[in-house]
Amino acid sequence: MTSENWWLSQPEPSDVAALKGWEGLFTQGSGYLHVRGSLEEHLSDAPQNQSYMRRPANVTAEQFPDMRSKWGTFVPGIYGNHPLMGKEMANLPCFLQIVPSVDGERLDIRQSALLHHQRALNLKTALLSRSLTWHTQSGARIDLTFERFASAAQPHLFVQRLILTSDRDAHLLLEAGIDAGVRTSGYDHFTQVRFERLGAARLRCDVVLDTGDEVHEISQARLGGATWDYVAGERAAHLRAAIPLHAGQSITFEKATLVTTNIDEGELILSDFDSLDTPFDTLLAEHAAVWQRRWEHADVRISGDNHSQIALRAALYHLLRAHPGHDRVAIDPKAYAGDAYRGLYFWDTEMYLLPFFLYTDPERARMLTDFRIRTLLGAQRNAAEFGYAGARYPWEGDADGIEQCPNWQYRDHEVHVTADVVYGLAHTAQATAQPDYLAQDGRAVLRETAAYWLERIDGRPDDAYPSLLGVMGPDEYAPITNNNAYTNRMVAFALSLAAAVEADEGLRERCLSSAHNLPLPRRADGLLLQCEEFEQFAEIDFAALWRDRTKPFAAQVSQERLYRSRCLKQADVLLLMMLFPGEFSDAEVSQAWAYYLPYTTHDSSLSPGVHALIALRLGFADQAWAFWERSLHLDFDGGAEEGIHIAAQGMNWQIAVFGFGGLRTAMQADVLTLNPHLPHQWTQLAFPVVWKGQQAYVEITPDGVSIENRSEQDLTASVHGTSVVIAPGQGSIWHGQAHT
Amino acid sequence: MTSENWWLSQPEPSDVAALKGWEGLFTQGSGYLHVRGSLEEHLSDAPQNQSYMRRPANVTAEQFPDMRSKWGTFVPGIYGNHPLMGKEMANLPCFLQIVPSVDGERLDIRQSALLHHQRALNLKTALLSRSLTWHTQSGARIDLTFERFASAAQPHLFVQRLILTSDRDAHLLLEAGIDAGVRTSGYDHFTQVRFERLGAARLRCDVVLDTGDEVHEISQARLGGATWDYVAGERAAHLRAAIPLHAGQSITFEKATLVTTNIDEGELILSDFDSLDTPFDTLLAEHAAVWQRRWEHADVRISGDNHSQIALRAALYHLLRAHPGHDRVAIDPKAYAGDAYRGLYFWDTEMYLLPFFLYTDPERARMLTDFRIRTLLGAQRNAAEFGYAGARYPWEGDADGIEQCPNWQYRDHEVHVTADVVYGLAHTAQATAQPDYLAQDGRAVLRETAAYWLERIDGRPDDAYPSLLGVMGPDEYAPITNNNAYTNRMVAFALSLAAAVEADEGLRERCLSSAHNLPLPRRADGLLLQCEEFEQFAEIDFAALWRDRTKPFAAQVSQERLYRSRCLKQADVLLLMMLFPGEFSDAEVSQAWAYYLPYTTHDSSLSPGVHALIALRLGFADQAWAFWERSLHLDFDGGAEEGIHIAAQGMNWQIAVFGFGGLRTAMQADVLTLNPHLPHQWTQLAFPVVWKGQQAYVEITPDGVSIENRSEQDLTASVHGTSVVIAPGQGSIWHGQAHT
User: Fold this and answer.
1) What are A308-342's pLDDT values in tens digits?
2) Measured distance CA(A584)–CA(A587) in Å, rounded
3) CB contact under 8 A, A469 and B536
4) CA-CA distance, A323 to A357, in Å (whole number)?
5) Which pLDDT belongs to residue B56?
6) Residues 6+ away with beta carbon under 8 Å from A146
7) What pLDDT score was predicted for residue A53?
8) Distance, CA of A137 to CA of A116 (rounded, Å)
9) Is there a contact between A320 and A622 (Cβ–Cβ < 8 Å)?
10) What's the average model confidence in pLDDT over B581-587?
11) Searching chain A, which residue's CA lies closest to the CA of residue B541?
12) From its phi and psi, is residue B662 left (phi > 0), alpha (psi between -120 and 50) or beta?
């Protein structure tokens, strides 16, 4: 394991065009607080206070305003009310500001003469570092190192440091401030902004949002011998000190910022926070220790392929960072690294994020499904809003589970999320071997969602079977369809579980009857149809219409054409087959792959990962590898400008562990089961796994598979069909079965 | 013909709850300028400057803000840019204001002690009158008569008069102003408002809109001996005079307002307008003369049923008033009597409005279809916007034919309008016996819309026939369907006409092939299906879901349920059968009637009229009568609050003349053909008709039918299959054939 495999490095930190993407990739977060990787001194011509009116749109094809830089400071659960979009997580005052000026020249990466500019995120310690050498116009050579982290040990705390050395005597002016001149997707949610100086070197900013939410930020400046002036405007304030630089002597400036809000648990007395006075190194040590423990349970090691190793670690870094550590919020599709998905919660949680946590940190996994149990009341309100009994989980939910999706086609028709939530509960119960989690904790969710389904399911006059009509499946380019296979199977699954906890015999029978009879539509030759009418859609001439393959198909044709044509945004039938692999033969999967792939645009970041997994099942190693690389690459080269595609990052873990590693989920196997497909590009794949409460460690090489039982009980494990019982603390090796 | 059959009277003019509906019904218009029937002195607690953000929504289910009164002053073609809705006809400064105060007490219909308050619109002269007696707190008894009209002779001119008499000496304070404190659907489109006094008794208001459009209003006050003060605020100004009232002596105040805009043809020099100084009676006489001529060509006389007579005359009044008199704009669905449909142009023009004009005033009819020819460029732009060749007429078009519909499901999918436009051109050509109107004037429309269709039509892999996929037919509760029968038939019609003018043989063949092969989907038993998937929709429990039948069904269930269920907003298959009666047997029509009627909510005002006509064809006299009454009643009892349902009013003429009168259209018959169904409630139905350039007059009684040839040539006419040639100036009588 080389050290550079932990460093995510920005190749050209002075490349302004690439800045926004790296702001996303370099997002740091404590679970409580998330901050995009913007430059400390900012760009002079990238104002953050420009207003525009965002409109409901298909985010895939949405054009975001052309901004060189986009600050982001987010506390999940702190919302603004957008007049058109609904609730959205608010972008809070930015406290990153540290601006050095030397001999009257302000640091500016485009104007200043820079040498050796480097910027990198240490994924292992979640520390973002930046070093540069600056030749000032006055002739000084200044070495600067910025460092910063969002404390994993003290989640309200963000810590920064600047070490600066001049090769000659010079005059430094340092500004360290808080800037509330920000917007959330172009909208100003602040109804009050107040700045205050506290003592000699503290700056406080209080804002009230249009939801009534309140946010407080206190920044502490620390620099021996400096005398701070306080400079305040309406929307920004900073502390400023003039410091003499002596040739060859370093000065060290530290800035710590404490963020509290009205949704904090317990009472936070701001002035009590000693941490603001704790030295950087002390805080960093306790922070790094937390990350050390996290990686022990989560790291996936890949040998022979540095690129995959770093990119996958970046994925896991963001998954670990984005988890809130409690069940009051979940993880939004941009992992709080941007406002594009408004900090809301989608089915991504259950289908794309949950597995990583379930098999690495089940306690945190359970918080994600507990979030759904906690927001049942919101789901009941949504159902009533639509005229139904029971509970209807939101397509885009806020922290209370209230539907906030502003586009009716998704909000109204993408009902599968309500069944996906139940699948998530079941997965947690299975993977943690806690059946009571379903039967007790999840009981109300099972019953209430079943009550919704029983009203939502139609019986058409001419049919002998029930139908789910007017639904959008995972593929969002087929907006209103009948008997979507994925949806029907998921709903049948949810109804079966509801029947198992239902005491009323009549209701139980109704649940079972619908569960057994909801159809999976098939063509005469057996092909599983995405929905009844899939073959009634038009053929589409991709070659003629999709001229720029670097951009989504949806950005190049009208929505009207998408909606009547055989074109998929993402895996739909194949996702179903991925989740219920035992219910479909290889021949069926192969038939579906051959049929749907040519129609699939992968406009959704959720698509390549599913295709990689299905390709591995079918033994299409080259295609699997291509989809893996595509999925792994999503957030690079500008992909992260509006935030991290966290569901795809969750899928990247799944491709590595479920796909290449061949781990069967607890929904698919009773004992720890592996059928690895190690890519020929790799010499080793190794990862920890928690199987029904038992820790294990898996290593796969071209020569074989080893499993170490790190738990206190015997562990049964099966590799390519060969089962072994492994004693506590022992390992077992299967030879020569890593490739298929 | 009794005189009261020309008066549309408001039963309780002091009933504030009913005011808004009567404001719509009492809308006056010159073609150029339209003004809602608001009170001259206004209500003190109904502010017109309250802002709100209107959002795209289904207008049927849209909740409009609760306002007691809604001023409306519209010049068709003068727009504002709404940030969410697109272009919308702007509500202009209101110049109606005439406020009398006597002995310090301001006239207020809720506070003042009123006797004999009456208000009525003389449909014959388009004069709105109001008389009331007011007992002031000071003890005076004041008789007031307000009169007003939008001059049909000088369309830029609006004229008002107040005659006031006191039974004792008193002090009158009179205010006459212009109020720009208005909104269009809650939005303020004025970027500049300027007031100015011109001379002793003139007030000028200039506004600039956010589109750059400019509007000028000049009001002239006339009252012998009065001295006017000028009182101006930022958004309103008025002239004010104190006038001594002498017991028993009337004073007469006149106010004339001239409106000009940047879209006026030619140059209007405001100060040149002598009309502002012309006495009320002189202006009224020339105005009434125009209306006299209009009614001669349009009036439908009904004997034995005063209610139908007045309501139908009100319908014709609004049709006559709303027509612009040129082809630079058309008629919006609210007849410029409200802003609900934003002053835009829909298919209503061709299908619901055009026939009335075609058979009463062909010259004006042709202006409506000329409007489509003139806006071909806009239609071409729309097609390009959607990625197609040719021309695509807008679902909601502005004066340039540019699509302004903010709801994607209608905008994207309700493509039939593009074929409806061609049907309208063909109808004009047929009814005016001007085949060149299609072959020459309309040629580019035929060819360009055909070019669009040829790209829009799909051939599905498994089908031997072409299909129109992903369309919404007239029934807007089936949003995205395949092979909608109405749409396919209309498109086939348009393509056939295009083929007839197409020189290129390949193109001609393609047009003809599609025209011949676009399917009309049928059930196994022959039932004409609205669309392929109609029987795949869910059954719906109307009894359980539609609890308040006085409100639209759509307001009581979710859109999601509408979109997956067998429920029709309006006639769809039946409209097709109404337009192409010869293509469907009585058995087929009867089958469709029996099948669709139970599913039809008539949430659309366009629905009852079609049903009345089909019921008459099928001999269902009682049902026809019920639908007639329903359609006729639409704008009463609050129905006109947001404007007139002008398409339904056009249908009311069609029910009377095509239905009860039994006139075949020129699309259906070569010679003037009548098959009357006189309702037993009526003793006579009589109307003028223009048949292919020849004037005729039809009278139908229970005893028979008479047709008078008012043209210069022989007229061939057929009644119930018996043809006669009628010499110029002569009549012909068919006995005993009026009832069927």
Assistant:
1) 999 999 999 999 999 999 999 999 999 999 999 99
2) 8
3) yes
4) 9
5) 85
6) A40, A98, A129, A130, A131, A160, A161, A162
7) 87
8) 17
9) no
10) 98
11) A458
12) left
Of B462, B539, B560, the CB nearest to A412: B560
Q: What angle do CA A604, A610, A615 make, to 5 degrees?
A: 130
Q: In what order do the strands lie in the sheet with B28-29?
A: B28-29, B34-35, B73-74
pLDDT of res. B272? 58
| Average pLDDT score over residue span B707-736 | 95
CB A151 within 8 A of CB A58: no
Q: Which residue of B has its CA nearest to A564?
A: B470
Mean pLDDT over B101-108 rounds to: 97
Residue of B531, B564, B595 to mutate when probing chain A, most A C-beta within 10 A = B564
pTM above 0.90, yes or no: yes
Cβ pair B386:A535 closer than 8 A:
no
Domain spans in chain A, listed from the N-terminal domain onward: 3-296, 299-660
Show which residues on chain A lie within 8 Å of chain B, measured between beta carbons.
53, 55, 83-84, 385-387, 408, 412-413, 458-462, 467, 469-470, 479-480, 482, 532-533, 535-539, 545, 557-561, 563-565
CA distance A283 to A410: 44
User: Between the CA of residue B526 and those of A631, B529, B582, what are the distances in Å?
Assistant: 52, 9, 17
Residues in chain B with CB shorter than 8 Å from the CB of A385 are 558
- Name the residue of chain B whose CA is nearest to A545's CA: B387
Q: Does A176 have pLDDT greater than 80?
A: yes
Q: Which residues of B touch A (CB under 8 A)?
A: 53, 55, 83-84, 385-387, 408, 412-413, 458-462, 467, 469-470, 479-480, 482, 532-533, 535-539, 545, 557-561, 563-565
Taking the CA atoms of A549, A551, A556 and A560 in sequence, report the sign of the dihedral they define. Answer: positive
String of DSSP letters for B327-370: SSS---TTTTS-STTTT-B-THIIIIIHHHHHTT-HHHHHHHHH
How many angstroms separate the CA atoms of B513 and B466, rounded? 9
A46 token code pair: 């990238």
Enter the tokens of residue B737: 């054939």
Q: Which has the closest alpha carbon to B572: B614, B530, B616?
A: B530
Question: Inter-chain contact A536–B469, Cβ cutoff 8 Å?
Answer: yes
Residue A504 burial (CB count, 10 A):
10
Beta-bridged to residue A481, according to DSSP, are A471
CATH match of B299-660 with 1.50.10.10: yes
CATH topology of domain B3-296: Beta-galactosidase; Chain A, domain 5 (2.70.98)
B3-296 and B299-660 agree in CATH topology = no
**pLDDT > 80? residue B489:** yes
What's the pLDDT tens digit per position in A654-676? 999 999 999 999 999 999 999 99
Q: Who among B387, B532, B563 is closest to A558 (CB)?
A: B387
H or E segment to which residue A216 belongs: strand A214-222
CB contact (8 A) between residue B538 and residue A480? no
Spell out which residues of chain B touch residue A84, defining contact as CB-CB under 8 Å: 55, 84
Tokens 């991925």 locate to A578
A539 has pLDDT over 90: yes
Going by their DSSP bridges, the two strands A715-719 and A672-674 should be labelled as parallel
> Do the beta carbons of residue B571 and residue B610 sit within 8 Å?
yes
Backbone angles phi, psi at B216, to 5 degrees: -125, 135
Q: Is residue B158 within 8 Å of residue B257, measured between CB atoms?
A: yes
Determine the Cα–Cα distance for residues B585 and B579; give it in Å rounded to an integer. Answer: 13
Average pLDDT score, chain B: 95
> Are B1 and B305 spatial neighbours (Cβ–Cβ below 8 Å)?
no
Q: What ipTM does the predicted assembly reach?
A: 0.92
For residue B253, count CB atoms less than 10 angstroms from its CB and return exposed for 0-12, middle for 13-18, buried for 19 or more. Answer: buried
